[in-house]
Each structure stands twice: as structure tokens, then as C-alpha cells.
Amino acid sequence: MTMQSITSDDLVADVLARGGDAMIDVFVQHAPHFQALRDAEARRVMARLVTVAQAAATAGVPADALVRDLNIALGLQHDDHVDMPDASSRPGTPAKTPRRPEHWPVTVLDVREDLLAGREPFPRIMAAVAKLSARQVLQLRAPFEPVPLLAVLGRRGFVHEVVRRAEDDWSVWFWRAAGDADSDTGTATVASPTVASADGVDNAMATEQWIDVRGLEPPEPMVRTLAALESLPPGHTLVQVNVRAPHYLLPVLLERGYTYEIDELPDDRVLVRVRHRQ
Questions:
Q1: Does residue 1 form part of some domain?
Q2: Which of 220, 206, 267 is nearest to 248 (CA)?
Q3: Whole-model pTM?
Q4: Which residue, 141, 147, 183, 265, is most buried by CB atoms nearer than 10 A?
Q5: 158: domain range?
Q6: What is the pLDDT of residues 178-200, one digit of tens each?
Q7: Element (DSSP H or E) covering residue 65
Q8: How distant, in Å, are the alpha carbons of 48, 235, 263 from that of 209?
């Protein structure tokens, strides 16, 4: 049976499962940014949430070159390319690291214990981001560089500054880009999950809340769903509207004490009904 080639849509976790340390070496060869993959805790949390393409975009390296070299390492492609240039000269590499506005108020969120204990911190992080005003900064403390989060918040108009204090102590400051801050006079609407009652009307008595994640890029569907579950009352149901069964979300739901049912509808919608386990 022919082994399937790696693609840019593959999750980093699946790639590492196929080649182990050899795959990590390829990532690191493309960008020192990927040194975090050598840490077991970082791999467990990060690698299952981000695709090869997203990882490449975050590190500022070409996705096609990374995919090619991963396949070469697995023996699925011939090594017929020239040596890679230094990371600092590659297209897409930021020319200058942004500096945070030092006069803006800072909210500190430390998720190191959550990650080391195996708890997903994304709902807490996204809730903290949602509370930021236009001219506030969130300082995140983590045991590694939170690569997937940088991509998620970057797409939402946030810039960041990263400082590594120790091997297992990283600080990342997030704030809205200047243009967004100047045009925003109220609270940021960045990360609040889009949740509605079953009939689309804000009804406090509704026992179903719906969240539509179609069209979102990973890991946003998981992030938004877990954030919505944080405020789900006992006895209520969260209905995720998706285009496919969220296979990477399902084991997380079971670990957190939820049950789920999956309905595949004729109109290419998949409904995932999530409830607290009785």
C-alpha cells in the first residue's frame, strides 16, 4: 500500500506521529520558531490544533517548501532542491518585531498551570481577549510560545510581542493594531462566540444555544465551542453547526465531562449537540 504524502492541510500532530523526531528536525530547520515542538507538553497542546500551513504562516516560512521537506524526510519525495536561505531572508519573515504600547493598561493571564495539568486554556484566553478595550493589552504567561493563538488573534486584528524568560516561561503581549484601535471606541468584539437561541431570538429560557462555526479556520471552531461551553448552564444543550464531524473536538468534550450527539443533515450541515454528562 502506497503511503500518502503530507499536505499543507495535515495537522502538525499527524505529521509528527508519522516521523517523530525526524519531522521535528525538519520544522526546526525551516525556522527556530519551531523549537517549541521539542517540548512534549507543547506538542500535546499545539500540534493537534494547527495545520502545517498555519504553522508555516505563523513562522513566516513558505508552506510548500516545508511540506516538500517533510515528504523528503519520509522518503516520499526526491531531494532535488537547493539549500534553504537563512530564516531572516525568507519572504514573509517580519522585518521588525512590534513593541507594545507601554502606557496602556495591562491585564495579566497566567495559563502555565492549566497547560501543564492538561487543561485547555483557550476559553479563558478568549474570554480575557473579549474584555479588552481598544487601548488595553493582554499579557499571557505560558510554558511555551502559543503558536496557534498567535495566528487566531492575528486574523482578528491583534499584534503581539513575545519574550522568552526561561525554557518553560514565555510572555506574550496582545493588543489591537493601531488602525483598529483608532476606529474602535468601545469594548473589543474579538472573541465572544456567536451564540444564539434555537429560534435565533435572545431567549434566556431557551434550553438550546447554537453556534455556527462553518467557514472558520482551525483551531477557531474548537476555541469558540469550548468558550461557549464555559457558560452553558446545566441541563442546556450547545448545538454546534459544522460542515463535518469535529473529530479533534470530540475527545476533548469527553475529557471535560460532556456527552454529544451528531446529526448529519441533507443540506450538508452537521449538528453536534453537546450536553453536560448527567
A1: no
A2: 220
A3: 0.47
A4: 147
A5: 106-183
A6: 645 444 433 333 333 444 444 44
A7: helix 63-73
A8: 27, 12, 16
